[in-house]
Amino acid sequence: MIRTVFAVLVAGFAGTIVNALAAMLIGGPAKWELMLMPGRYVVACIVAALLPFIFRAMKPTLGVVVAAIALTGIPSLNAKLVLGVGAPWFNVLLLNAVYAAVAMLVYLAITGDLTQRRRR
């Protein structure tokens, strides 16, 4: 349980940091401020909290697909519809796909979720 919570938190933080670095590549150094916004880390960790449920409920390949869609879609919808981010949808989806990929990789590296459980 503690390992899972730790994995979710590290995944959320790592995904957010790499997301901000990718935003700096697209939008320039002014996007550095994204790394300093605590609310982004909170949302990222809440969204990353879906990972244990997704990977335990689904076969490995389907779990990766569902997790990628959820971890890309939820923050993108939040950014565009709730926070009113003015960036084009493509950029928002791309940057959140970076978050999703990093968060999944970090979570799976810490938990070993796909390698330790029995195949169905």
What report would you give on this structure?
α1 (2-27) packs antiparallel against α5 (89-111) and α2 runs antiparallel to α4. The chain is mainly α and 120 residues long. The chain contains 6 helices and no strands. The two termini are 23 Å apart.
In terms of structural class, how would the helical and strand content be classed? mainly alpha
**Cα Rg:** 14 Å
What is the molecular shape?
Answer: globular
Strand content: under 5%
Q: For the terminal residues, how far apart are their CA atoms?
A: 23 Å
> Stretches where pLDDT falls below 50 for ≥5 residues?
none
Average of per-residue pLDDT values? 90
Regarding quaternary structure, what we see is single chain
The description of the largest β-sheet is: none
